[in-house]
Amino acid sequence: MAADGKGLVGHAGAVLLRRLADRVGLTRGLAGVLPSSTSAGWRERAGVLVQLAVAMVLGARSLLEAEQLQLHHQGLFGPAASDSTMRRLLAELDDKTLMKIAKVRRRVRRHVWMLLHLRPGGFPWLTVAGRRLTGWIVVDLDATVITSAS
After folding, report:
1. How does pLDDT run along the chain (150 residues), one tens digit per residue?
2. How many domains is the chain partitioned into structurally?
3. What is the pTM of this model?
4. 112, part of any domain
5. Which of 38, 51, 60, 123 is the most exposed place for a label (fewest CB within 10 A)?
6. What is the SS3 assignment for 127?
């Protein structure tokens, strides 16, 4: 790694969230219930929905902000979905599709908890000041706080 500032991507947690969604089967499960097409220029709706969720976690408050965050991360996840593509996706989500999405989410959540249950030692609950905080989900990221003025 060079200290030239090139090849860096902010919001490194976006990678963890997206890869987690892919690894536990959420993206694949959504692909089975969302509309699809083989026409040129079609964006796979499952990937668009997952990327939209990641953008929201990162603080996007509009579809335009979600598109801008995706543009920032396109080196990692490929071309960004436009705000109009995201708008069309959201418009397609009728009650029947939302019920299918909820079913996929339940199945994936059950799968993740089963994997955690099988983990030696169980789930790594957070302990703060000697007190175990059960019910919390912990994502332990290695980071350094750096103060700067720009």
Report:
1. 455 656 555 566 788 888 889 999 999 999 999 988 777 667 789 999 999 998 888 888 999 999 998 888 888 788 888 999 999 999 989 999 999 999 999 999 999 888 888 877 666 666 777 777 776 666 655 555 556 555
2. 1
3. 0.72
4. yes
5. 38
6. strand
CA gap 11, 33 in Å, rounded: 29
- Domain contains 7: no
The residue type of 50 is V
Q: Which two tokens stand for residue 58?
A: 């990162």
Identify the domain containing residue 62 by its residue range: 13-121
> What distances in angstroms separate CA 30 from CA 21, 55, 105, 108, one per listed residue?
10, 17, 9, 10
* 3-class secondary structure, 74: helix
62 contacts: CB under 8 Å, gap ≥ 6: 83
- Alpha-carbon span 105 to 46, nearest angstrom: 12
